[in-house]
Design brief:
The protein is built from eight helices and no strands. The chain is mainly alpha-helical and 195 residues long. Helix 4 packs antiparallel against helix 5. The longest helix is centred in the middle third of the chain and has 30 residues. It is globular, with a radius of gyration of 18 Å.
Length: 195
Amino acid sequence: MLAIALRGELGRDLHLQALALLPPAAIGLALERPIERRLGGLRAVAVAQIVAGAALFAADLRPEHRSQPDAIDHLAVGAAQAAALIPGVSRSGAAITAARLRGLSRESAAALALRSALPVTVGAGLLKGARAVREGVPAELRVPAAAGAAASFASALAALPLARGTRWRAIAAYRVALGIGALALAGRRAGRPLA
C-alpha cells in the first residue's frame, strides 16, 4: 500500500531516508522485546495514548515555518518512529508530531511521515516474519494475525486520502480520550476481586 502511494518518490533522497530509518532499526533490534514485555499492559498503553495524543495536539498548534525537510528533520522523525515501539504510540502520529515540532508545514510533515514509513514498515515486517518462521505461530493466533494484517491494510488504504495537510487536533483529542477510557477500564479491573 505504501509503495503504491509513494510510487513517484521511491528512490529519491535515499541518504535522508536512511537517516529516518537508523533510529528505529537500531532501537528496534536492541530493545523491541524488552519494551513489549515491560510496556505492553493496559495501563502503560493507555498512558502512551494520552501522552502521544497530547504531544500531537501541541505539535499541531505550532506555526508552519518550512516546507522542505532537512537531515535533522529526518533524524527527528526516525527517533519518533523508534518511540512507536512503545505499545500505544502510533508510528505515523509520532513521525508527524516530530516533524510538526520541527516547524514543518502540515503537508510536508505528512509527506515525510509517509516516506519514512516504507523502510520502517518493511523492516519490521521482515523481522517479525523471520521470527514467525523460526519460532512458529501458535495455531490459535493464526486467524487473529491474518485479521490484524487485513485490518492494517484496510486502515492504511482508508487513511491515505486524509493524510496530507490534515489538522490532527481531532485525532489527537480522540487518542487522549481513548487513553483516558482505557485508564478507567484498567482502574476498574484493578479494583475487582480475583475470581
